[in-house]
Design brief:
Layout (H helix, E strand, L loop, with lengths): L1 H27 L2 H11 L4 E3 L1 H10 L5 E6 L3 E9 L2 E7 L5 E6 L3 E6 H4 L5 E2 L6 E2 L3 E7 L2 E6 L6 E4 L3 H18 L8
Antiparallel strand pairs: 1-11, 2-5, 3-4, 4-7, 4-8, 5-6, 9-10, 10-11
Length: 187
């Protein structure tokens, strides 16, 4: 009987410790910790903003024209501004060029900085990325795909590997869910 009682106490103690560890792990997931994680892992990652894709699409509205950006933008600053708002800036490499091909006229190359300097810049509006406007996050392979309210296309982050892309996706989904305008309703 002593052994059964001791085994029961040991099992109860183990379960209590395991549930305490799970609660401690969950309590570490906060808006601030999600933003801190992104601040640590995203600088230097390739970021393809939706509005650049939209500008290219608009410029190519004629079936006679094809445009490509030869260079990949990277996130250079990722920091929390306030709860549910982050400052993200990205920049194309200095040697980035825009390739323009017009049917019958050949291909021409232009410096990004002289032709479309506003392609380098901030993510979101001048006050930052408002996570309440993030409608959908999907981790797919090494990429994290983001759909913000008002954008007709997606933005993408190249996480570099599956594991990091998955973790970035979870952090962004956490921000999306916890910063939603309806979050205070409890639903």
């Amino acid at each position: 009987m002593k052994h059964a009682c001791a085994a029961g106490i040991a099992t109860a103690t183990f379960l209590l410790m395991a549930s305490s560890a799970a609660i401690a792990q969950e309590s570490k997931q906060t808006i601030a910790s999600a933003q801190q994680f992104l601040n640590m892992v995203l600088p230097g990652r390739v970021y393809s903003p939706a509005y650049v894709k939209e500008k290219l699409k608009k410029a190519q509205s004629s079936s006679e024209t094809e445009m490509m950006i030869l260079g990949k933008p990277t996130l250079v600053n990722v920091s929390a501004r306030v709860s549910c708002v982050s400052n993200w800036t990205f920049q194309y490499p200095s040697d980035t060029r825009i390739s323009v091909s017009v049917r019958g006229q050949g291909r021409k190359y232009y410096s990004l900085s002289s032709s479309v300097p506003e392609l380098n810049g901030i993510v979101g509006d001048p006050q930052g990325v408002h996570w309440r406007t993030l409608e959908r996050v999907t981790a797919s392979g090494t990429f994290v795909i983001l759909k913000f309210r008002g954008d007709s296309t997606n933005s993408e982050i190249d996480g570099g590997d599956y594991s990091l892309a998955s973790r970035v996706g979870r952090a962004l989904e956490f921000l999306r869910a916890h910063c939603a305008e309806t979050n205070d309703t409890g639903f």
